Amino acid sequence: MLPALRAAAPARIVVVASGLHKGQRMDFDDPQGERRFSMMQVYARSKLANLLFARALARRLRDSGVTVNALHPGVVDTGLAREFPWPFRVLATLVLIAPDKGARTSVYLATALELEGASGDYYVKCRRIEPDPAALDDGAAERLWRLAEAATGIRMGS
Length: 158
What we know:
The protein is α/β, with parallel strands linked by helices and 158 residues long. It has six helices and four strands; from the N terminus they run αβαβαααββα.
């Protein structure tokens, strides 16, 4: 898709992550959580991975007219909470927001005129914020990029 996006520039890529990335670190020795599985930890690390991916992709697309930004949509009532362990399920019901409200930041990143050219950032409630320092680790972003290339057999460029 990247050649098509570059040809269609200006274009935007929006990556959905989560505030649950905070406090996480990538486990490059067990990236799939196969040796030690915790549903919540694997989910949280996957959201950190989304932020690292967005960072690596934004770097690769710099000056191409294609921007990449990530967001936390809020705790949206998607049905996912049904799979959480019971204490988290109960907590989630107290803070869940409607899907249309959860989509606001995604739509904002995809359409806001004031964001033209903005890339590599993280947003919550339509505002740019700093993610956890682990999400700003360019070394981890590049390591994850190479891991994804090896796992998929697809070279995505450096």
